[in-house]
Amino acid sequence: QKAEALIDSLAAGNQSSPRVLHLRARLLAQQSKFADAATLEASLCNASSSSADDCNDLAWTDLFIPSSAAQQMVSAAEKAFQLTHSSSLSVLHTLALVQATSGDLKDARAAGYRVLEGEGISDQVLTVFGRIAEEIGLPTAAREYYRRVSHQETGPALSNYSFAQTRLQQLPAHPPPIS
Fold this sequence. Notes:
There is one protein chain. Helices cover 68% and strands 0% of the residues. The protein has ten helices and no strands. Helix 4 packs antiparallel against helix 5 (70-83) and helix 4 (52-62) packs parallel to helix 6 (89-101). The chain is globular, with a radius of gyration of 17 Å.
């Protein structure tokens, strides 16, 4: 409630300013209201003055919504990547996850390797290859990647750790036997 009051005081007559919308979206995401957050982020990403962060935030939040519109997620991630002139590893990480989620595994793997080159083994790399493993039907491998993502005590609801935990919950408890 304190955060909402602070955002309301910042709004002071301009409820639709990009700054206010961004803060409201972040608050909604922290409250695990991902669909509501994505709605606000979509208005920011679709604006003519959108930034790479606006679009990356939308694509990343969409990854937390099970029935998210794939085309919106892909468009937002690609726009964010273009706006950074292909120079941001965090945006590339989001793009790789979106590509894996949408079934574009070849490009997801290539992007994952670029993140690996830039960061070495990191939580970002683990989530990308965990998601790819899921998509190709290797839940045991995916589970191992996700379990290696480090836990941050103060991590936000949209952290890599939260993403990994969400994916772990969605994996089958016992993978089917190989026939």
